[in-house]
Specification:
- This protein is α/β, with parallel strands linked by helices.
- It has 3 domains: about 90 residues, Winged helix-like DNA-binding domain superfamily/Winged helix DNA-binding domain (Arc Repressor Mutant, subunit A); about 100 residues, D-Maltodextrin-Binding Protein, domain 2 (3-Layer(aba) Sandwich); about 110 residues, D-Maltodextrin-Binding Protein, domain 2 (3-Layer(aba) Sandwich).
- Helix content is about 45%, strand content about 20%.
- The protein is built from 13 helices and 10 strands.
- The strands form 2 sheets. Strands 4-3-5-10-6-9-7-8 form an 8-stranded mixed β-sheet, sandwiched between helices.
- A hairpin with a 5-residue loop joins β1 and β2.
- The relative contact order is 0.12.
């Protein structure tokens, strides 16, 4: 507990913009640095701090013998209040958004990048035909961002990638062997499948650290005592394909991606499966959250749709 607590009457009329300015000064211990971060003049920031001190009736900052800015115990109490205020207000916004979405039959949906596309071009059309009353608000994220967003309730449901988080209830929808694009001038292009030692010293284009396939590849190589060359991190398939087409190295892909006409008909690049890497994704939600009736219908639709589209690969 702080030695000084702010009374409700003292914070009721605080200017929230001034609170953010105060947080910059508190963190940086400098009016000049805080003013730059807040895109204000130093004079303007100092005026805002004087206004805040006047509202509270206390002094927030003092200067030590060397002229350095030091927060008072009142400032410590205000900073504690500000951190709680930011957290509570963010939670309030999320709660309001969730209630508004539920009232309008809007499902807030997150997807790890690329997983939405694997469901196929008719996925949304078939969903709208089967459930015309459901509206989907969705965006794609890195694997890590998607899990954090679902955990923080920015989404109601999400397509997440294996290994699945223990924080969620997940039904697997898809599994496939990870493949690599290989330039046909390389001897590896004539192999039936790539083992860990085939990657020794090779440069590879692959989605980066925020994606689980990247970490799976590094783990496989470490366990097999294999040293990779340079890793070119990108989640854009065109860039990965171009990397391989120019002969720079190997590139991550899936057989379903390679089957697209834009990739499959290029004669200088072939697709070779890996022996040890797979990519799996499923539909997830938080276990303590009861799905609404529209959310349950959407969840069931995804499971049945994936079963039809991917067949035995969802078993």
């Amino acid at each position: 507990m702080h030695a000084v607590a702010l009374r409700i009457a003292e914070v009721r009329a605080l200017n929230t913009e001034h609170l953010h300015y105060f947080a910059h000064v508190y963190d940086m211990r400098s009016y000049n640095a805080a003013a730059k971060r807040a895109s204000l003049t130093t004079t303007g920031l100092a005026k805002a701090m004087r206004s805040l001190e006047k509202s509270l009736g206390v002094e927030l900052f003092e200067k030590d013998d060397l002229g350095n800015l030091e927060p008072t115990e009142y400032a410590d109490a205000l900073h504690h209040f500000f951190l709680n205020y930011e957290s509570d207000f963010s939670l309030l916004r999320e709660t309001i958004e969730r209630i508004r979405a539920q009232k309008n039959n809007v499902i807030r949906f997150g997807s790890c990048q690329g997983m939405w596309g694997l469901m196929g071009p008719s996925f949304l059309f078939d969903l709208n035909r089967a459930h015309p009353d459901i509206t989907l608000s969705y965006s794609e994220y890195t694997d890590r961002e998607c899990e954090v967003g679902l955990l923080n309730q920015h989404f109601d449901l999400a397509f997440t990638v294996a290994p699945y988080s223990q924080d969620f209830v997940t039904t697997e929808l898809f599994t496939d062997i990870v493949c690599f694009w290989v330039n046909t001038k390389f001897a590896l292009a004539r192999k039936e499948a790539l083992a860990a030692w085939d990657f020794e010293g090779l440069d590879i284009a692959i989605p980066g650290k925020e994606y689980k396939v990247y970490n799976a590849l590094l783990k496989l190589c470490a366990e097999s005592d294999v040293t990779l060359g340079e890793i070119y991190e990108t989640s854009e398939l065109y860039r990965i394909f171009d990397f391989v087409a120019k002969g720079y190295g190997l590139g991550f892909t899936l057989s379903s991606v390679n089957a697209l006409e834009m990739f499959s008909e290029y004669p200088k690049v072939c697709c070779v499966p890996s022996k040890d890497l797979t990519l799996r994704f499923g539909i997830s939600y938080l276990p303590y959250r009861n799905l609404t009736e529209p959310e349950q219908r959407f969840y069931d639709f995804c499971v049945k749709y994936a079963g039809r589209r991917f067949g035995k690969r969802t078993e």
